[in-house]
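User: Predict the structure for this protein chain, please.
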Amino acid sequence: MPGAMHRLVCGVIPKPSLFASLTLGLLLTTVLGNGCGPFARLKLAQPRPGGGQRVLRLESDRARFATEDVPWDRLLLAWPLPGARTGGERFVLYLRLPPGGGEFCTERTDDGRGDLAGFLIQRTGHRAGLSRVRQGSVSVTGGAERRTGRLELECADGTALRGSFRAVRSDLALRFFEEDHAADVEALGRPGQGKTADAPAGRRAKQ
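Assistant: Here is the predicted structure, written as structure tokens:
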């Protein structure tokens, strides 16, 4: 009897068409991408050797942050090549900032909300290498598991970054990255301490 009932139900309820399945998948992707999942969008402008600017628009779902038993939070955003959402991480932005929400800048303010520091790694093109964040600000809101924000930064090599992000907490991902780039992270110094000189020109980033 249960088998007959199963066949009856399966015979009454039609199977979804391929078009309906694709439409549902696209709808779910759009809803999840816009409302729940992490994302990082960036406009990256670099000065050209002969004058002018090279502008890249980057987008990905690789936005993570960590807040552990240390006196600062860390943000890690990564992007594939322009025009793609998947693929190898060709641009990586690592930032260290005071814990919790707020607006933070590279210059220490009267309320102590400064000490924003970080670097950009580019792993493709003639500008491949690491450049330290020289000036700018990042605004952050959110709780223990998700953070949203906007950034406007300039690196030592003249690269300008402007974008937004929605990051999910991933202490382990940040720990792995920091182990792989221990010297670069250490070169940022401790919050409240002086920062070391920028990486020399032509330095190659780790692949």
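The longest helix spans residues 18-35.
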